[in-house]
Design brief:
By secondary structure, the chain is an alpha/beta fold. The protein has two domains: 3-161, Rossmann fold; 171-265, ProC C-terminal domain-like fold (Orthogonal Bundle), CATH 1.10.3730.10. The chain contains ten helices and eight strands. It is elongated, with a radius of gyration of 22 Å. The protein has helices spanning 12-24, 73-76, 99-106, 138-149, 163-171, 173-190, 195-215, 220-227, 233-241, 247-265; strands at 3-8, 27-33, 46-49, 63-66, 89-92, 111-116, 126-132, 152-156.
Length: 267
């Protein structure tokens, strides 16, 4: 049996979620509030509205998904306070907006789930970390998890304070991986490879390695050792990358800086 949802905002992430719900057959009906010219799927289960007022008389949804940018939540979210009731939960993917923040906008009795997805969700390969307030019941928690699973893997935490580190690691992680591709390609070009070839090699190496890691049950350290012949070329490179001033302290500082900034943005 499908579910009735209300999706507020249908940009890249909201659109990716909507496509996933439709493919998985999770929903019977989705009211989508999207004032821009974004193209929505031509599907009888999807009804588009230009503003919150247009759904004022719509049947109560089981889940209201808030998928607008964090900088507009102050003005957008209060219009949906009318849906706060025991049968409805809110799921937010707005970065930096806490459970307490939504409690202030919607009322202390609102059932709210906060989710932190990342951009590979656009192709169904993301990962979302979720945390719920005390008003979310087991059925709502299960449905919220199913909705986010349509865009990739899902993890739950009980401590909302961990979301800042999640934001730093998996939220920003795709950017770090793309930087790795750039860096590998530049290093290859510096070693004499044609620039375009170096980029193709770097891109596919990261893509293939990620696919291998996903398909293998072995730890990342084991996979690394499997590639490394004693005294060989890979070991020579790893001695540089794993030195005391190598990659690990750089990433420690990077993740710490992003975690600190996430806490600042959350207020």
């Amino acid at each position: 049996m499908g579910h009735r949802l209300l999706l507020v905002g249908c940009g890249k992430m909201g659109g990716a979620l909507l496509d996933g719900w439709l493919r998985a057959g999770i929903v019977d009906h989705v009211d989508v509030v999207e004032p821009s010219v974004a193209t929505l799927p031509r599907d009888p289960r999807v009804v588009r509205h230009d503003a919150a007022d247009a759904v004022a008389d719509a049947p109560r949804p089981e889940i209201v998904v808030i998928a607008v940018k964090p900088q507009v939540t102050d003005t957008v979210v209060p219009a949906y306070r009318r849906f706060v009731a025991p049968g409805t939960a809110f799921v937010s993917i707005a970065a930096g907006r806490t459970l307490g923040y939504f409690g202030d906008l919607l009322g202390a009795e609102a059932a709210v789930v906060r989710a932190m997805p990342n951009t590979p969700a656009a192709i169904g390969q993301g990962i979302s970390v979720m945390v719920a307030n005390d008003h979310v019941d087991d059925a709502q928690r299960h449905l919220a998890g199913r909705l986010m699973a349509a865009a990739g893997a899902v993890e739950w935490v009980e401590d909302e304070g961990l979301i800042d580190a999640v934001t730093a690691l998996s939220g920003g992680g795709p950017a770090y991986v793309f930087l790795l591709i750039e860096t590998l390609a530049q290093a290859g070009a510096a070693a004499g490879l044609p620039t375009a070839l170096a980029m193709r090699l770097a891109r596919q190496t990261v893509v293939g390695s990620g696919a291998l890691a996903a398909a293998s049950e072995e730890a990342a350290a084991t996979l690394r050792r499997n590639v490394t012949s004693p005294g060989g070329t890979t070991q020579a490179a790893l001695e540089v990358l794993m030195a005391a001033d190598g990659v690990q302290p750089l990433f420690d500082r990077a993740i710490a800086a992003a975690t600190k900034r996430s806490r600042e943005l959350a207020g």
